[in-house]
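Dear all,

This email documents one entry for the complex benchmark we are building for the journal club exercise. For each entry we list the sequence lines for every component of the assembly. Then comes the predicted three-dimensional structure of the complex as a token string, followed by one or two observations. Please use this as the template for your own entries, and keep the labels exactly as they appear.
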Amino acid sequence: MARREDPAASVAGVVLEWPGRPPLGPLDLTVEPGEIVAVVGASGAGKSTLLRLLAGLEPAPAQGAVTRQSGATTGFVFQAPTLMPWADALTNVALPLELAGRPRPEARRRAAEALSAVGLGDRLAARPRQLSGGMAMRVSLARALVTDPDLLLLDEPFAALDSVTRRRLIEDLHRLWAARSPRPAIVFVTHDVEEAVYLAGRAVVLDSATGRTVAALACPGPLPRPDGWRAEPDYRVVVEALAAALAAAMPATITAPMTASGAAR
Amino acid sequence: MTRLAPPLLLTALLLAAWEIACRVLAVPPWFLPPPSAVVIALVDRAPILAASAAATFWMALQALMAAALLGGGLALAVSMNRSAERAVRPLAVALQVTPVVAIAPLVLIWTGLDHADRAVVALAAAVAFFPLFSGVLTGLKSADPDLERLFDLYGASPVQRLVRLRLPAALPFMLEGLRVASGLAVIGAVVAEFVSGSGATQGLAWRLLESGNRLRTADMLAALVCLMVMGLALNTVVGALERRARTSAR
């Protein structure tokens, strides 16, 4: 980025307190326009909370500040596809535009375009139950992109998918990101270090107990990634470094194995 | 057809055993008439039973509609506000756990002793109220919390949230509530009629009381059969509606 701009969104010094639990924070994250940031951390490290703060879905914190560009639009992809089961793919994707008061024909036309962009142009009338996990996640991605958001937030979106589907969706995400002008800023929460380093230009590690940022690593190389990038030494080195940083941020004794589904929500 | 065969076969066997036992043991008909006598009573008294069944059905239906309007409406209002729900729910539960028989004499006084049919409708509605209120309220709050967050994110208005998210999510719960409530409305109507039973109402419960007083046991059983068929029919209709809604909502 040659031009200096305001950050797309930032969370600074936010401390959250709940009765009967240790406080979370201070949470800090600044996202520049058009950049892809991966957030890694153990379950319960406040990753989802951080995303919801960035989205403006949490009440204003008593301590610290959340800033977003004025007039910026946000897209959100949850861990599960989170589609309305009674509505078809087109209606699900058109929802954000219709809620914003766009005329129905325009909303449906743009929804159809967004579904085509994720490779589901022929499944507009499909109900969520008729779609595979990967397809449902693509619908969810199309819904998040249909408003042309400046900020795209993804909360472990591909964790429940098999590795082949997951890799395909990451390529899709890169392609969709690169095709937009200006490119949206992306914050991607994951507990998979390889996914983080492949997907993002920068990865931050949250402490498992406090959610504090304990490490930030630049993930080198061009985005989207060229073919065979996963075998590149530049990539492998950062994966190892991130894995070490994540291990250091874990609780001293791990009593139970980590599971794919986050108990953080 | 194969699904219907086992229950039909069992019913036929039980009826045959009953018929044979009555004849072999020479049971007096005022104590237990054989099924054939019940069938004859059903045929003989068909017009009066049909009229009584229609009366009971109509009272139960009115009660169901009143309960759906009140229960659904109250649930809708209460779902908008958490403290309203906390205030109303214990009262709704209190209404549910109070036996309908116990409040029947009171309601009879309030509706006027000459209007026993109104009391029956009111009591049946009171019994049918809770499953509808509870079903609609549970359904309205059953939407995926992440979908609720999505509606927050896109700044949905309360009306948009209700129409696009909460009502569709609530539909299967509403129909489940309606199914339970329809059975309860018939039970409530019969119980209320028993309590108020003075001939002021002409429903199936009155036919039961009347025949019982005269020891016309076969007529009693005939009325009972009518009640059973009515309950089954109502349950089947609402159950079919519910299944349809579920498949389209899944």
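Observations: The beta strands of chain A are 9-16, 24-31, 36-40, 63-68, 74-77, 151-155, 185-190, 202-206, 213-218. Residues 82-149 of chain A form one domain.
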